[in-house]
From TrEMBL:
Origin species: Armillaria novae-zelandiae
UniProt protein name: Uncharacterized protein
Domain of life per record: Eukaryota
Amino acid sequence: MLTMLSAFNKFADKTSFPTTFTYALASIRYLLHRISLPSSDINPEDTLVHVLWMFAHNVAFDELPDEQIAAFSDLMEYAVVHSSVFKPEREWTDAQMILVKLYSAMVGASSSQRPRHNYWPALRPLVEFLIIQYDTPPASLGYASYDDTYFLFFDGMCNILGFGLRHGVQTVYNVFLETQCLDVFRSHHLRPGLVRVINGYVAGLAAPHTLIDSQRHLDYLHEPENLFLACCILAINGWQDFRCLANGEILQTQLPGEICRGIRALARLRPSDPSWDQCRQKLRDLQDDREEFFVKQQKWEWDELEDLKPEDIKQAKDNIRLAVEELDRFFSDWKNTKLRFLMHPRESISIMWRFPSRIYQNFRYPQRREGDEENVSS
């Protein structure tokens, strides 16, 4: 067996790698190769799922040296581009799910830390596969449920995209724009994971990343249909998102306060954009919509997607109303601030500089400051 695997061991000369790590990679590569061959007396995909599951349980990616991350990145590219695992099927498979989870762990999306490397292998073909499989249901949860019963395969890719966008990863931004992700989202029903994508996109564009063509992405986001879509995702889709506590209780994760913060952060990016007037009007109209928009939406119910029930539509409309009110408050404050500055520009500039000027004087003339304090005390 070891002799057979040695042909697939690309890192046998890496003496710094643990033997178990190199043979695990070789085993996965061998099984990926076997899957593309004609059927035999064993099912290589079942074996692959088992090996991937064991690998996921025994490898801590946040502790791996960059050299080993690069080795796994090479394997991931082989799995996505050259093997037959990521081919469109009638349902997501366990092997696809665990590979997406491993990709997420490799780039750091499974933790709250910032990316510590720039290995994002085969991201574009992976996103293109996701687009093809957008409406495809998951298979029955087998090994796929190894750490999150409620994990949806599509949402795993949303975690990866949202993480990369939030932290200004140029590869993710390029793929997001090249594949026109917002246009894809708009042509399908909304999914819970899209909230993390939009929040990550907004946070990333608000941060001073020098490697990103922010202007181009802001233009894309503020296209009228895309801006309306982003608001809808932040407002009505959060109610679908949930997490399971240790005691089995399921909590809604997108609370009203989070909806308001997400909407306000989006508005801050470019409040003067003319698309906002149209977007806000469409959101108001959506509160009275009875069929056109909501009939296209579906909600994940345990093991399948279902059409929205009347109570679901009511909750979505309540969230839209909340978003509209938040936008009204934001733009009212923004216009008042802008109006005050236009009416009294000198006074505004004077106020803006008065405080830092006072601090400078205190540091520049400490004796004068002490004298002022003595005069006050006397």
